[in-house]
Design the sequence.
């Protein structure tokens, strides 16, 4: 069984291999995992990985990484040893579901593309970023839910 501290190490090490030192993106990714992970949903829907990335978002990330940004492809390869240039969509979604380091790398790309500036190391700002750009919600309870879930699993 995977434990939260193992996820924390994996997130940190994956981002380090991508040359991404910001602690706030690590909190944002861990918080996304904490609030989105639900095994029942994971096994019965077209949602991928610990972050339960939707099929629409996964398709967008696959295209973004493959077609437009060599820097993202290079970072992902350095961090996960996955060569995005030869990776079809079916294999991409399999890796999202089965490879946590790959999910961390793709979430980094997702947040980098959708939100150009990752918030500073402030849990309130990080929770707002999650709510707005991943959950696509302006409900203030989503921010509190993110913080509660993050505290429960990672503090």
Sequence:
């Amino acid at each position: 069984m995977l434990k939260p501290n193992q996820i924390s190490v994996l997130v940190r090490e994956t981002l380090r291999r991508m040359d991404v030192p910001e602690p706030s993106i690590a909190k944002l990714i861990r918080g996304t995992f904490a609030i989105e992970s639900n095994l029942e949903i994971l096994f019965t829907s077209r949602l991928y990985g610990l972050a339960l990335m939707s099929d629409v978002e996964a398709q967008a990330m696959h295209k973004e990484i493959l077609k437009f940004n060599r820097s993202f492809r290079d970072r992902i390869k350095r961090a996960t040893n996955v060569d995005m240039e030869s990776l079809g969509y079916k294999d991409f979604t399999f890796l999202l579901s089965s490879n946590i380091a790959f999910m961390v790398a793709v979430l980094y790309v997702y947040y980098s593309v959708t939100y150009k500036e990752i918030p500073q190391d402030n849990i309130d700002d990080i929770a707002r970023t999650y709510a707005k750009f991943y959950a696509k919600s302006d409900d203030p309870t989503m921010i509190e839910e993110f913080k509660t879930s993050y505290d429960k699993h990672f503090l």
